[in-house]
Amino acid sequence: MKKVILTYGTFDLFHIGHLNLLRNLKSLGDYLIVGVSTDAFNAQKGKRTVISFEERIDIVQSLKCVDLTLPEHCWEQKARDITEHGVSVFGMGDDWQGHFDGLKALCEVVYLPRTAGISSSALKHCLREIALAG
Amino acid sequence: MKKVILTYGTFDLFHIGHLNLLRNLKSLGDYLIVGVSTDAFNAQKGKRTVISFEERIDIVQSLKCVDLTLPEHCWEQKARDITEHGVSVFGMGDDWQGHFDGLKALCEVVYLPRTAGISSSALKHCLREIALAG
Predict the structure, then answer these.
(1) What is the pLDDT of residue B132?
(2) From CA A117, how far away is CA B14, in angstroms rounded?
(3) Whole-angstrom distance between the N-terminal and C-terminal Cα of chain A?
(4) How far apart are the first and last CA of chain B?
(5) Which position among B2, B3, B26, B45 bears the catalytic label?
(6) Under CATH, which number does the domain A4-133 receive?
(7) What is the pTM of this model?
(8) What is the pLDDT of residues A73-114, one digit of tens each?
(9) List of E strands, A48-107
(10) Is B47 a catalytic residue?
(11) Inter-chain CB proximity A55 and B15 less than 8 Å
(12) Cα angle at A129 between A124 and A131, to 5 degrees?
């Protein structure tokens, strides 16, 4: 039986940190499902992206390590997705350490190390510095 | 016999325009080879990237539509790569229209439409506007 891994994210300005995390998650099992936050859900969280939902999910779905993508509409969705898709491992970057321990009743929950020195925020900050300097 | 397609690019700040072009190129054949410009080659062209060569080529190689990546070191390399890899179609975005017609002696040369409204330059410009406004 295939071992299903599930994660969520926004994946704005797709970068190597996203890719490394998704590959590391995939290595924990056979089938990787990635929930991508919709623009409406991000707005609700007060988060603004540079890239639209349609483009963000299209890029994530185009990766070799990703088997299925789905839109993430709300916080409550995670438990439902775990049950519906027979998920064995729920994984996030360790910037979320402890945040989703409530899901341990449903499946294994892991927090993986993030790639040092890169994040969408760091990238935006770096681009901001370049813009202001130029 | 597999039909080999070849293209080149920098793929800085990977975006939907890159992905659409690569998918369209792949649809012309069976095996897509992508040359990714090294940092040294970009420097020679006076082009500065936000993302390093190692990360840019890693992201391109991770795409389902890409079969092989190779570093692009110089302009002269294209003819050699076409011969070495048995390339049937050399393809680029139509911002390069006519530039590589000299390669028609070696294989078919096509220029495909780019996705409207997005490019690494446009993205940097947009981020610059956000930075300056913020």
Answers:
(1) 66
(2) 18
(3) 55
(4) 55
(5) B45
(6) 3.40.50.620
(7) 0.93
(8) 999 999 999 999 999 999 999 999 999 999 999 999 999 999
(9) 68-72, 87-93
(10) yes
(11) yes
(12) 90
